[in-house]
Every structure is written in C-alpha cells, then in structure tokens.
Amino acid sequence: MNLPDVPPADDVTAxxxxxxxxxxxxxxxxxxxxxxxxxxxxxxxxxxSMDHLTLRDASGAGVVDASTVVHRAPRPDxxxxxxxxxxxxxxxxxxxxxxxxxxDWTIGDAVAVGWVDLPDGRALPVFHRxxx
Length: 132
Hints:
6% of the residues lie in helices and 39% in strands. It is mainly beta. The chain has a 5-stranded mixed barrel with strand order 4-5-6-8-7. It has a 3-stranded antiparallel β-sheet with strand order 2-1-3, covered by helices on one side. The longest helix has 8 residues, at 14-21. Residues 56-115 form the ChsH2 C-terminal OB-fold domain.
C-alpha cells in the first residue's frame, strides 16, 4: 500500500497519534456527557465542553457504513484500485479509512482494525473483513 500524505500531530491529535504508535485505536470521550467522537477535537460536539475530553481505547470492530472504489490515482505513485470507506465503530463514531482485502465490499460488512506503519513511527488504521 502506498502511504498517503499524513498531517502532523497537533495539540488536539498528539495523544491519538501516540496511541497509534502502539497500534491502539482510540476515540475521544467527554466525561461530562459521555459522548464519543472521532476525530479528536478541541470541543465536545454534543455538549460543547472543552475541559472534559479524554481518549478511550476502542475495540477496533466496526461495520462498513459506505464505501467507494478509487480507480484514478490522486498521485502517480498511488496504486489503484483501492477502497475508501466510512466505518462505523462499535463505540459509535465513524472513521474514514481504507479497506484492505479486495474491492468487493458491501454496506454492513463486519470489519476489524489493522495497521500500516508510517516511517515516523506513527501508524494508520485500516480495516479488513471479519466473519462478523
């Protein structure tokens, strides 16, 4: 898999990226209202709290919510075709990600997280099919 351009960590996402170094998928949780969200933000999208946000380990299980197969490479060094999908995690949030293991996906397919290591030590979550 060709590696995409990945943004640098910032004050809001640094802890999330640090967890990926250990191949741990996390979601952001608000301890004030118990809302769970992804990607990490500076504010809870449910109650607007800025002071009660923490990261919580996620199971890595989810289902395909929507997907598309990309046939035209965004850069000359990217191999096509590949599948981009919205994966709804068991914890609720949606992750935009790549699916591995073919391009014949359907909505509702059960998936689990896998990892693609980046040269800087971080890792990208990708998802593969499970038996459900």
